[in-house]
Amino acid sequence: MSAIDIATAAAAAATGTATATTPKTVVAFHAHPDDEVLLTGGTLARLAAEGHRTVIVVACDGAMGDATEPGALVRLDELRASARVLGVARVHHLGYADSGHGALLFPDPPDRTRFVRASVDEAAKLLAAVLEEERADLLLSYDAAGGYGHRDHVHVHEVGARAAELTGVRVLEATVPREPLVRLGKTLQRLHILRRYDFSDASWFGSPGAEITHRYDVRRYAGAKQAALARHGTQLGKNRGGLLFRILVRMPTPLFAALVGRREWYVEPRRPRPGPGTSSDTSPGSSSH
């Protein structure tokens, strides 16, 4: 097994070679502002530091109501601030409203469509236009469960997969190892830090460790990831929902790195799964030779 980094993988996908001597363009497709940090913050920071062009496309603007209301789009401003910390060159919003998380799907706001109500083809064509404009070498999207089953995240998976089909751009799906995530979630629930999720059905959370094809070392960029997360001030509110965010941004950076800043994980669709003897430190562009 020969490990090459994500930019080399992008070069191979674009040119058929395995060289990364020239800058490549990687587009990260996310559901909401702050997701770019939680799932791919270290990856984006590392790519930018190594001289590659990174672009964030976000489906939703972070607002449930009318976008013309005062302060409605503050989360997009927070996303742009986070992107600057991560060295991201461009942020693009597809134009959709949040769909919310829970049993009730609210009517669309008067000025835009909730993302989950957009057809896969409609949204994929918008994303494909950005991929083509950027001449993207690689698309980062989400796994089939969208990380934790949120309807907008699942739709990102569907739209990202379709956009990759339309453009021929290689796609890696951001994920997390299911087993430790579920253990951590249950622990946080016992501590009354996290109450929102039901971990009894683990299939909605991340991917089984055996299905993860790429593990990307981002520990040197944990500080940037933590600083970018801190730019999402609306998510740090005094209510219980912001408690975990507040803990993460206020803890010492070495502890943050140990908990959520060492690696980021990806699944490559239709790629053969790692077999016995595969390195546990395989990066997102690794390939066998």
Distance between the termini: 7 Å
Strand order across the largest sheet = 3-2-1-4-5-7-6
Question: What percentage of residues falls in helices of 4 or more residues?
Answer: 25-40%
Number of strands: 7
Counting helices, strands and paired strands, the structural category is alpha/beta
| Biggest β-sheet description | 7 strands, mixed
How would you sum up this structure, described in words?
Helices cover 37% and strands 14% of the residues. By secondary structure, the chain is of the alpha/beta class. Helix 2 (35-49) crosses helix 7, helix 3 (74-86) runs antiparallel to helix 7 and helix 7 (222-230) crosses helix 8. Strand 1 (25-30), helix 2 (35-49) and strand 2 form a beta-alpha-beta unit. It has helices spanning 6-15, 35-49, 74-86, 120-134, 151-167, 178-190, 222-230, 243-250, 253-260; strands at 25-30, 53-60, 90-96, 138-142, 170-175, 214-217, 263-267. The model is unreliable at 14-18 and 272-289 (pLDDT under 50). It contains nine helices and seven strands. It starts with 5 loop residues before the first helix and ends in a 22-residue tail after the last strand. Strands 3-2-1-4-5-7-6 form a seven-stranded mixed sheet, with helices on both faces.
Key traits:
single chain; 289 residues; alpha/beta; 7-stranded mixed sheet; 9 helices; globular; disordered C terminus
